[in-house]
Fold this sequence. Notes:
Number of helices: 14
Largest sheet: none
Strand content: under 5%
Shape: globular
CATH superfamily: MetI-like
Oligomer: single chain
Amino acid sequence: MDSAQSGSPSAGFHPRLGGLAGFIVRRLLLGLLVLAIVSVVVFAATQALPGDPARAILGRSATPDSLKALREQLNLNRPVLTQYGDWVKGLVTGNLGTSLAAREPVSTYLHDRLVNSAFLVFLSAIISIPLSIAIGAYAALKRDRLFDSSASILTLLLAALPEFVVGVTLVVLFATTIFPHLLPGVSNIAPGTEPWTQLKEMILPTLTLVIAVTPYVARIMRASMIEVLESEYVEMARLKGVPEREVVVRHALPNALGPTFQVIAINLAYLAGGVIVVEYVFNYAGIGGALQNAVITRDLPVVQALAMLIAAVYVVLNLLADVATILVTPRLRTRL
Length: 336
């Protein structure tokens, strides 16, 4: 085997399936423990919210008898531990409960909104991840040159901007003042309508999330790529006469992706939660509006379901990032 190839951490190694499988099982168990702790925190926090869900539903003119009847109907008069046990049992069995405000199953109430939010996150991810990796890798290859300096300054500026500032700026630019009516400033998607049939309405929300995520991943990718390009095995490959393109594509890039996967996972999980702000800015019919309405009306089952969903997304994405990092980093595979 060529010494340049054998010196690279990406060559000549294969993951030990048993060790990797054991690692995945351990991380799954840890993830379940985290979700169990999160469920306690979420349930306790929602129970501590001020106000009475029954009164929020019936209004101020409700009589004491009607309030009592509704509390009994919604099982709000049962002991807190009993309510928590029933809620956890429902989570495990897929029964998320009934929306107190909409008076329909939470899964039915959230279905279209989850589809809309998932599609928005999907569009943002497939654009921002390749774009940020390309920007970071190219900036590392052009280190201290014009592109690298410009990209570093621009990504730093964009990283400092909150999503709502980016969203409002894009609305001003493309929907009102500068280029009036070029793009819709409000993403009105009718209930029951698939978001992929309204792609024009998706442009500004997607662009907002892309701008919010790309700077972080690009900066980490640049730093990781620079470290790999200065490593011994890359220098060895160059001394052996391996073409620079092959050095970058075969040796440097795969190994630079390891640390970047962790940041990608964090940012994808951030999209799942940060999408709420963007949805509010563009009046997008996703989980953001559902969560806002649920908090206002004290619709506890909806708040609890969305909180647990976001927590589960964090756990799953971090597990996938850890597995991907191990697969591209041989020194980690050998420790399993």
